[in-house]
Specification:
Largest sheet: 6 strands, mixed
Order of helices and strands: HHHHEHEHEHEHEHEEHHEHEHEHHH
Number of strands: 10
Number of helices: 16
Radius of gyration: 22 Å
Distance between the termini: 47 Å
């Protein structure tokens, strides 16, 4: 964007001038005694204690409540590969959401590299300053390897929110939609449109949460992912092994034939006749932003429950429902990683917030609901303790 396209009177630009966050002190610095305690000579005693026992950093530094929000700027919102500087306003936004909804301090880290090895090396080198790593807006398929390698290398939680945050909220929403329609997750036939970061994570999360993988069909831009399709490698080959037991082939219309659920995480448009081919009392989550794969009003002609990623329609699937509480819970438990059990616990907690007042227009809480983050925090921390990955 050139400077000529910046409108100083635009309230968006007014809000962003100077950035959306700042560093503030948590201790007084008004006297010589204050200085001697907070800095030299007093600080040296704390440094020596941490050198003797590195785990004390959780008690005597900000690391116990601070997350790095890391991106390479390669897949920013719907803007694509716009680079690290242009990604910074989004990472600042993510950081203030962490603080507002989870009480977690977060620092934007925008890396000027899109090389997997360099990203892993940079984040590994930065890790001692943080209690967790939130990967953000890194394009697929590199994001899978970056997360896997960091998860193996570090003893703190690593969480790619574009994958897992979305997947957690999708599972929560599907639990409540199924309950509302008197259905069981294990009986649902699910079509996932999109095999990128979100599509892969959603598929795995649904299976972890109780959906039968044999009843799941995943589509990419070339159609249904199947063991019969030649040339599949990596993640897509794994999806072919995990899902589509019937060996369906064809396009999204075939994938949706008699399906109970459509989950769109692709950005591609899905024709109305394909939705019309779904089973009665269906569920559509059309999550592409700003343009859903199926317009909510169109989907509503054919299914019982519709959700989108937008705030101007009911049932917004927004990952802000997940990530603040997930990290707050993981940090509280001093977890070494985020497990599938912790993600499922987060989904259950989100679903439980509105479980007593379900309607077709309210299967998930509002992102502004103050009950969400505490519920997720408690559930995730407990799951970390039960799963043996907690150190507190």
């Amino acid at each position: 964007m050139s400077s000529s396209t910046v409108d100083p009177a635009d309230p968006v630009f007014q809000l962003h001038r100077g950035g959306k966050m700042a560093v503030v002190s948590t201790v007084p610095l008004t006297s010589r005694d204050d200085l001697s305690l907070a800095y030299t000579p007093g600080v040296a005693r704390v440094c020596e204690a941490i050198a003797a026992d590195p785990m004390l950093a959780h008690d005597y530094t900000w690391a116990s409540n601070t997350v790095a929000v890391v991106t390479d700027g390669s897949a920013v919102l719907g803007l694509g590969n716009i680079g690290p500087r242009a990604a910074l306003p989004v990472m600042e936004g993510k950081a203030v959401l962490f603080k507002q909804f989870g009480g977690v301090d977060a620092v934007p880290v925008c890396l000027d590299t899109q090389d997997v090895d360099e990203i892993v090396a940079a984040v590994t080198a930065l890790a001692p300053s943080f209690g967790g790593i939130n990967l953000e807006d890194i394009s697929a398929p590199r994001c899978f390897e970056v997360e896997r390698r960091l998860d193996e290398a570090l003893d703190i939680p690593v969480f790619h929110d574009d994958q897992h945050g979305t997947a957690i909220v999708v599972l929560a929403a599907l639990r409540n939609a199924a309950t509302l329609l008197n259905r069981k997750l294990g009986d649902l036939r699910v079509a996932v449109s999109g095999a990128g970061a979100a599509g892969v994570a959603v598929t795995r999360m649904l299976v972890a949460g109780g959906v039968d993988p044999d009843h799941v069909v995943v589509c990419d831009s070339k159609g249904i992912i199947s063991a019969h399709r030649p040339g599949l490698t990596g993640i897509k080959a794994e999806l072919a092994e995990l899902t589509n037991a019937d060996g369906r082939q064809g396009d999204i219309t075939e994938a949706l034939r008699d399906a109970d659920v459509l989950i769109g995480v692709s950005g591609g448009q899905i024709p109305e006749q394909a939705v019309a081919g779904m089973a009665p009392d269906g569920i559509v989550f059309a999550l592409a932003n700003p343009t859903p794969e199926v317009h909510p009003e169109v989907a509503g002609r054919h299914v019982a429950v519709v959700a989108t990623g937008r705030s101007d329609y009911p049932n917004q699937i927004n990952n802000v429902l997940a990530f603040p509480g997930v990290f707050r819970g993981a940090l509280a438990a001093r977890a070494t990683r985020v497990t599938d059990a912790m993600k499922v616990a987060a989904a259950d907690a989100i679903a439980s917030v509105v479980a007593e007042a379900l309607t077709p227009e309210a299967i998930v809480p509002s992102p502004l609901d103050p009950r969400v983050a505490p519920a997720v925090t408690e559930a995730v921390a407990e799951a970390a303790r039960r799963g043996g990955v907690a150190r507190a």
